[in-house]
């Protein structure tokens, strides 16, 4: 079974979006470099960020998201973001009306069942968990091995928290990776067990 990693871009004060679910300048660093990050060529980052992110993206076998993000993005046009093979959506509702059943999306009720499905699909590859409410639930359930953050120098003041509504203390080890890119700081922590 592969590693489970909670990951997202985050403001310095710990938010993944503002109060209206807008990322604002959080994703600007994906456009401020010269090295294409994905096949589309739309995302261009610094060489330093590419060297950190691309190998990680290549390890992901499945990503886990909440239904709210899925609906906001329109299901990413039927293709999981980051060129990932499978997306598992935590939801109490079925797939949207008219959704292509061949699309690599799996709609699962509950974080534990969704994680089991994501791990089955990923095999020995990484399960990437989007930070936010669902990510916080997965962390609270003790299912996260590692936390990755791409910290952007912006302060939102309020909004959607990186760890969602987690109310209990969870210890992380000291950061084992700290890399400065252009307008972003890449951090990686192991979750203390």
What does this structure look like?
This protein has helices spanning 47-59, 67-72, 111-122, 133-140, and strands at 4-11, 15-17, 35-36, 44-45, 60-66, 87-90, 105-108, 126-130, 146-152, 160-161, 177-181, 184-190. The chain is built from four helices and twelve strands. Strand 5, helix 2 (67-72) and strand 6 form a beta-alpha-beta unit. It is globular. By secondary structure, the chain is an alpha/beta fold.
Number of domains: 1
Query: What is the level 1 CATH name?
Result: Alpha Beta
Which runs of at least 5 residues are low in confidence (pLDDT < 50)?
A: none
The coarse overall form would be globular
What's the SSE blueprint?
Layout (H helix, E strand, L loop, with lengths): L3 E8 L3 E3 L17 E2 L7 E2 L1 H13 E7 H6 L14 E4 L14 E4 L2 H12 L3 E5 L2 H8 L5 E7 L7 E2 L15 E5 L2 E7 L3
Parallel strand pairs: 1-8, 1-9, 5-6, 5-8, 6-7
Antiparallel strand pairs: 2-10, 3-4, 9-12, 11-12
Core attributes:
193 residues, alpha/beta, Dihydrofolate Reductase, subunit A, two-stranded antiparallel ribbon, 29% strand, DHFR-like_dom_sf, Dihydrofolate reductase
């Amino acid at each position: 079974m592969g590693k489970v990693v909670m990951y997202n871009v985050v403001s310095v004060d710990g938010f993944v979006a503002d109060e209206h679910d807008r990322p604002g300048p959080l994703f600007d660093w994906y456009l401020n470099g010269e090295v294409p990050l994905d096949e589309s060529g739309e995302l261009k980052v610094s060489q330093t960020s590419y060297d950190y992110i691309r190998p990680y993206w290549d390890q992901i076998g499945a990503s886990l998201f909440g239904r709210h993000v899925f609906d906001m993005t329109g299901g990413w046009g039927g293709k999981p973001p980051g060129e990932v093979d499978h997306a598992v959506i935590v939801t109490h509702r079925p797939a949207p009306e008219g959704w292509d059943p061949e699309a690599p999306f799996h709609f699962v009720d509950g974080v534990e069942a969704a994680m089991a499905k994501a791990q089955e699909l990923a095999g020995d590859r990484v399960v990437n968990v989007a930070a936010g409410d669902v990510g916080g639930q997965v962390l609270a359930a003790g299912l996260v091995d590692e936390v990755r953050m791409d910290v952007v120098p912006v302060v939102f003041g309020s909004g959607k928290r990186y760890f969602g509504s987690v109310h209990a203390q969870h210890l992380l080890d000291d950061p084992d990776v700290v890399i400065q890119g252009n307008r972003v700081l890449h951090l990686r922590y192991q979750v203390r067990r």
